[in-house]
Design a protein that fits this description.
Chains A, B: Its EC number is 2.5.1.-. By secondary structure, the first copy, chain A, is an all-alpha fold. Helices cover 76% and strands 1% of the residues of chain A. The first copy, chain A, has a single domain (3-295), classed as Farnesyl Diphosphate Synthase (Orthogonal Bundle). Chain A contains 15 helices and 2 strands. In chain A, strands 1-2 form a two-stranded antiparallel ribbon.
Chain lengths: 298, 298
């Protein structure tokens, strides 16, 4: 395992430990609800979003302990979105990362409620994290407001609506990109911006890092589509070719495999160049994360 | 219509106008999602929670304009909870307030997402409202944190889990009260506390008003159960006796109708006495709202 994978593994473990505490600590929560929340929170995965929060804060010399609650908050939002997306009335998936989906284990009602609870908790964790970190009130409130926009109707939830409505229909490239910008890009961008804001980024640093995150988010999505065509079932934890089977619009389907891969490489180069160009960012980890995204197999 | 009903009608209209703006203004939201969100937000109802935010702020001499976003936020949370509660996998209700439920009109997927979007938006509206009102950062962040607790796994969502698990089973009185304290009480208490915090309540005033709200919330729930037995179908907008049909545990079923009604009256008297006893609260409206809750027919 090379250095960046080691780093990501460490950050994932830190985040998982803290996530476990958040759910375990909460008083008066029905046992079954705690179980359902924990099941999906602890389902593993790369923990890309929280790692980006932590790595960005670190790149600006911020304290990791102050960034950790925000890392957990974004993972809670991501996890809730997966639980709801998997529901029978949405993507109707029985498996995710090789395990039964939440509603297959706990039933639909509990899956919906576990998702609702995680989403709600995320905002509480952000507010608490801001208080504990002593963030300026205005910074913290703007961050929460931005989180609501990027995770909500204008962002991730809106993206899921567009995605559902686009399924089984022909999608133009621009439309596909618009879906992904909101469905997955917004939360990735929010992760990087949270890390930056917690570490007192300058306005210029924030703009540069936002550009990095936007390119990373798009590259990540295209690479996901590429892996769905060429990936290894074992490593992916889901059947290869499942997008094609669902007649989903994907980048390889629209552009071909070679062009999709070139695009990923270009986006990653641009993202890295942005980070390198900005003074005051110790960006080695951010560069390595970008490289990892191209080389990954799952 | 007497004065308090007139007042509640006016506040409801103010809240509805502002709610409409919040959804309409949001850029980049898919049209279908806006429609589904608006359908349930504009489904009428007493708007008890937002009215409590506004009336409490007013009782402490706070500015109504500063309280209005928080009033809208709590109504968004309430509305999302109704949409999700009505889903086929939960209460499976086709009608609410005499209109088709969200999922009957827009389908299950859209209903889930419209609920998710409203919940998310609520936190954005609180953060924005706090910034616009110039609330101290610490007050605002504590308020958001409390909202997440009261609306989340520890509060409303947890209450819905307990409620689902209690259906078709015998429930003791204490357990029933615990369900309602979290399922409906927490959000009513949060409404009053938000109004108080926005208006710079003293610590004593906050404690007193919390006591008022807790009694009001319980009285409201018992009265709901009473109306389900003795109410008028037209006024209720749902079939009378629907709780009994679902074999739901209710206060009249556990205590009898007369004792349930007495309890409501006692709780309302206690709530009113608290408000009267606290210096610096111009509580006429809060008293009238409590009285209205006993006399209402829907």
């Amino acid at each position: 395992m090379d250095e960046i994978q080691q780093y990501m593994r460490e950050k994932a473990e830190q985040v998982e430990e803290k996530l476990g505490e958040y759910v375990k600590e909460a008083p008066g929560v029905p046992k079954s609800l705690k179980e359902a929340m924990t099941y999906s929170l602890m389902a593993g995965g790369k923990r890309l979003r929280p790692t980006l929060v932590l790595a960005t804060a670190e790149a600006l010399g911020g304290e990791e302990a102050k960034a950790l609650p925000f890392a957990c908050a974004v993972e809670m939002i991501h996890t809730y979105s997966l639980i709801h997306d998997d529901l029978p009335s949405m993507d109707n998936d029985d498996y995710r990362r090789g395990r039964l989906t939440n509603h297959k284990v706990y039933g639909e009602a509990m899956a919906i409620l576990a998702g609702d609870a995680l989403l709600t908790k995320a905002f509480g964790v952000m507010a608490e994290g801001a208080l504990d970190a002593g963030l300026p009130g205005e910074t913290a409130l703007n961050l929460i407001r931005e989180g609501a926009v990027r995770a909500g109707a204008e962002g991730m939830v809106g993206g899921q609506v567009k995605d559902i409505q686009g399924e089984n229909g022909k999608l133009e490239l621009e439309h596909l990109q618009d879906i992904h910008r909101s469905k997955t890009g917004d939360l990735i961008t929010f992760s990087v911006r949270m890390g930056a804001l917690v570490a007192n980024a300058t306005e210029n640093q924030l703009i540069t890092l936002t550009g990095y995150a936007e390119r990373l988010g798009l590259a990540f999505q295209i690479q996901d589509d590429v892996l769905d065509v060429v990936g290894d079932r074992e490593k992916l934890g889901k059947p290869v070719g499942s997008d094609e089977e669902k007649n989903k619009a994907t980048y390889p389907a629209l552009l071909g495999l070679a062009a999709s891969r070139d695009w990923v490489r270009n986006l990653v180069e641009e993202a890295k160049e942005l980070v390198r160009s900005e003074p005051g960012i110790r960006g080695a980890r951010l560069l390595a994360i970008a490289d990892y995204l191209v080389s990954r197999e799952s």
